[in-house]
């Protein structure tokens, strides 16, 4: 009896708190548009800025060259490593010693057979024959040594090849490129300035894709929102409720932490739209998210 009365009183109270939300919809709270990517593009090495190939307000593509840091020393180091690599390649492919060792072996064994015949005839002493036997064995060992030296030379060539690749990478690190398609929000580096590893050269933001974050009340929608559910997003471009951009999206993230206010975070990614040269939606704009059950 008591439980039935409690249910009777609790249901109207819930309806009064959220009177306008259909049963098949979940309304997120405190929704805001935010960046997905907003980074300070860093320098990776120290040196003087020799070229700036961008300015504030420019749009750059992923991989586009933005800054060139002085690479004079790195280029000289690369030329040296190329020469050392070429020398190592010549050593690795040089089989002259191996061929000579094989010819010396054939000669040594031919002499050994001749000395064996002379020994049978008693024309030479025993130790002369043994000396030739040792020389033939040494000739065989020289073949093994020549083959081992070729293997060592090949390993040295691989090491020099890696050093050359590292020298090329040192040059690449002095050419700073855009990590993604983006909009240059700020130019930080100056032409001729000395930068350090980690020094930011520009602030790059992504505007073609953004995310909308909001919060779900666990007291009303406990464990009802999951990743992949369809969402209707409305973004308000100004303070009025008239200038609205609408998107169809899906839940991309559901937070695992519930705050003291009994809210947990969700977010969706949206493909931004353009009007002329301007993006319609910008981070910081107010939004609404309706999750459809």
From TrEMBL:
Chain segments annotated as coiled-coil in the UniProt record: 131-172
UniProt-recorded name of the protein: Multidrug resistance protein MdtA
Signal peptide extent: 1-15
PANTHER family in the record: HLYD FAMILY OF SECRETION PROTEINS, MULTIDRUG RESISTANCE PROTEIN MDTA
Pfam families for this protein: BSH_RND
InterPro entries in the record: MdtA-like_BSH
Gene3D superfamilies registered for this protein in UniProt: 2.40.30.170, 2.40.50.100, Helix hairpin bin (1.10.287.470)
Organism: Novipirellula caenicola
Multidrug resistance protein MdtA-like barrel-sandwich hybrid domain boundaries: 37-205
Protein keywords: Coiled coil, Signal
């Amino acid at each position: 009896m008591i439980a039935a009365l409690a249910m009777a009183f609790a249901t109207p109270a819930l309806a009064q708190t959220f009177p306008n939300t259909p049963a098949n919809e979940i309304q997120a709270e405190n929704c805001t548009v935010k960046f997905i990517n907003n980074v300070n593009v860093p320098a990776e090495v120290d040196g003087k800025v020799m070229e700036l190939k961008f300015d504030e307000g420019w749009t750059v593509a992923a991989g586009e060259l933005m800054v060139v840091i002085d690479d004079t020393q790195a280029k000289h180091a690369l030329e040296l490593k190329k020469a050392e690599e070429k020398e190592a390649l010549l050593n690795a492919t040089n089989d002259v010693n191996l061929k000579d060792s094989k010819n010396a072996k054939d000669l040594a064994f031919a002499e050994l057979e001749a000395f064996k015949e002379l020994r049978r005839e008693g024309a030479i002493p025993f130790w002369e024959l043994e000396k030739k036997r040792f020389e033939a064995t040494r000739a065989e060992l020289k073949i093994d040594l020549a083959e081992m030296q070729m293997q060592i030379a090949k390993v040295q060539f691989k090491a020099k090849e890696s050093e050359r690749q590292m020298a090329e990478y040192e040059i690449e690190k002095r050419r700073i490129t855009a990590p993604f398609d983006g909009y240059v929000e700020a130019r930080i580096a100056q032409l001729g300035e000395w930068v350090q590893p980690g020094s930011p050269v520009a602030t790059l933001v992504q505007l073609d894709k953004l995310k909308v974050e909001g919060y779900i009340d666990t007291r009303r929608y406990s464990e009802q929102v999951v990743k992949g559910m369809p969402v209707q997003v409305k973004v308000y471009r100004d303070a009025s409720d008239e200038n609205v951009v609408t998107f169809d999206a899906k839940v991309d993230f559901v937070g695992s932490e519930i705050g003291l206010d009994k809210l947990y975070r969700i977010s969706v990614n949206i493909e931004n739209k353009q009007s002329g040269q301007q993006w319609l939606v910008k981070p910081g704009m107010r939004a609404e998210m309706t999750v459809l059950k």
